[in-house]
Each structure stands twice: as structure tokens, then as C-alpha cells.
């Protein structure tokens, strides 16, 4: 059993990761900016005010944690870079820092030509800031994360939505996992399964992985 802190536990991905970890017997702390507006998490989950971009929040929550999950969204481009940089800066000063699992963007995965999906000419403008922010976060981990252990998780770049929990998925690293029809599909529920599996049996330390059916 691990002590898991989920930043962004009130969101679509974070709430499912919180529930999955709790249902599998882990001690879970849900860190959200507005606890008073978060009343749908499982009873028994510890609910606290927390901000992954705040050094004070991370210092308060990290010492008792085995894993810090980052599942924040809805902000401007700087949010994800600032979250990654804050975690790296704070955790590298701890004697036994928890591991970081950052739920990132699928658009940072690479096309068959080796370029990020976010660089495709038809990439939607309304998602560009978030995609660039998640790319910034991945760069922080890859270039500035000495002294900490991290994993960056990318869902599929297009077909990623709420749905059924099957408990099954396949993994890859830099390019989307595709089926026989060339589709890369995953539900938020099975992304949560993949994240908690990685908490329980680490396979992708200090690297990125992706999952799909």
C-alpha cells in the first residue's frame, strides 16, 4: 500500500485516478484548490486544499507521500511547466522524495514522421496552449529532474474520453499505441488503471509512456 497524493483530484482524470487508487487499497490524499466544491470522491479519501504550483503546498504534502500524481488541467500554458518545475525544485531538496507521475498530453506523442502531433498543421488552435504547456512540462522533467524520479503519462492524442473500465490496455513510449485499424483509443477509466499499475509496479521510471487498447 502506498501513500498517494493526487493534485487535480477533482478533474476528469484526477477523480478517476483517485478512485482507482483508493479502491485498490492505497491511502489517497486528494489535493484540490476548492475542497468545498469537491463532494464526489470516495468516502475515506482525505480531501485537502492543495496547489501543485505552490512550493508551500508541495512541501506540506510531499514528506508523507510515496507518489505525487499531477492531473491538473484548465489553466494557461504556464500551468504545467510551473507544476513540473515546482515539483522538481522542492523534491530534490528532500531526503527521500516521493516519485512524480505526471498525466500529460497526448499531443506531445510523435507522429510516424517523428514530429509531435501538436506541430501538425491541422492541430486545433483551441488546444494549442494546453498542448504546448504539457510539452514544456515534459521538457522540464527530461532536462532538469536530477535527484527526483518521474514518469510522464500520455493518453492517446485524439480518442480519449470517459467510458468503461476494462482493466486492459497496451503500452508504448514515444508514439501512440494503435490497433489493427490504426486507431489509438483509451478511456479515462483505463488511464487510471494504467497510472495505478505504474504506482504499484514501476516500469517507466524517468521516462514517458502511453497507453491505449
Walk me through this protein's architecture.
It is a single chain. This protein has one domain (3-212): NAD(P)-binding Rossmann-like Domain (Rossmann fold), CATH 3.40.50.720. The strands form two sheets. It has an eight-stranded mixed sheet, sandwiched between helices. Strands 7-9 form a two-stranded parallel ribbon. The chain is built from five helices and ten strands, in the order E-H-E-E-H-E-H-E-H-E-E-E-E-H-E. Strand 1, helix 1 and strand 2 form a beta-alpha-beta unit. By secondary structure, it is α/β, with parallel strands linked by helices. It has helices at residues 12-23, 55-61, 78-91, 128-144, 188-200, and strands spanning 3-7, 27-32, 46-49, 67-70, 99-103, 150-154, 159-161, 170-172, 185-187, 207-212.
Amino acid at each position: 500500500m502506498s501513500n498517494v497524493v493526487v493534485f487535480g483530484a477533482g478533474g476528469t482524470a484526477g477523480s478517476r485516478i483517485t478512485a482507482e487508487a483508493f479502491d485498490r487499497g492505497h491511502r489517497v490524499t486528494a489535493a484540490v484548490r476548492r475542497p468545498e466544491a469537491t463532494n464526489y470522491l470516495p468516502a475515506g479519501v482525505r480531501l485537502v486544499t492543495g496547489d501543485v504550483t505552490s512550493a508551500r503546498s508541495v512541501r506540506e504534502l510531499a514528506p508523507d507521500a510515496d507518489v505525487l500524481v499531477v492531473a491538473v488541467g484548465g489553466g494557461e500554458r504556464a500551468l504545467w511547466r510551473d507544476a513540473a518545475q515546482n515539483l522538481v525544485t522542492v523534491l530534490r531538496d528532500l531526503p527521500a522524495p516521493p516519485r512524480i507521475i505526471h498525466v500529460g498530453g497526448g499531443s506531445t506523442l510523435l507522429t510516424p514522421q517523428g514530429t509531435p502531433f501538436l506541430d501538425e498543421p491541422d492541430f486545433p488552435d483551441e488546444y494549442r496552449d494546453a498542448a504546448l504547456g504539457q510539452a514544456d512540462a515534459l521538457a522540464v522533467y527530461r532536462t532538469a529532474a536530477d535527484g527526483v524520479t518521474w514518469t510522464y503519462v500520455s493518453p492517446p492524442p485524439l480518442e480519449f474520453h470517459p467510458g468503461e473500465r476494462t482493466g486492459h490496455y497496451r503500452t508504448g513510449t514515444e508514439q501512440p499505441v494503435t490497433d489493427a485499424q490504426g486507431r489509438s483509443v483509451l478511456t479515462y477509466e483505463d488511464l487510471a488503471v494504467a497510472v495505478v499499475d505504474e504506482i504499484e509496479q514501476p516500469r517507466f521510471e524517468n521516462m514517458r509512456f502511453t497507453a491505449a487498447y
